[in-house]
Amino acid sequence: MKNPPVAAQFALTIPELSRAIFAGDATAFEEFYRRYAPRVYGLLMVLTNARDELARDLLQVVMLRAARKFKPATNDDALWAWLAVIARNAFVDHIRSEERRQRREESASFQAAPASAGPSEELTAALEQALDQLDPDEQTLIRDFYFNDQSQAVIAANNETTVKALQSRLARIRRRLKEILTRTLEHEN
Q: Is the pTM of this model over 0.85?
């Protein structure tokens, strides 16, 4: 048996549903959730590169934000556009939060390291030589992230790639730098 059309599956029209939710009707919100949660989840799966657990967590965030700040809508397109903005903002907030957490962890591990007067001139020179051995685009990525303090999201957007792809590329570049530095410093000693 075929599924009934979407409009026939639900009792309320979008304007009716919208007004009822705005008035605080829990039953109307349940209907809203049944209508839009699968669609929002689909968008979040795209944004999170199919990370199911993260998409589910963000779905809850989106629906809570929608419940708290519900705006009456006159049609499905307007309501969906509003929900899509909330979903994208929740995803961006998550990315920023992760970046802040990573920076705090890196900062904490850096602060836990024994204090010194800073890198030696020999180490600084070796690092500059190692950077010079990288491809120009790799040098730019390293300098943007570590020296110019640009976020991974910004760098990824500028390079038309995903944050995950950028993280992988930075990890490969760091491994190359480590190999180059190790060879350089062992050769000098």
A: no
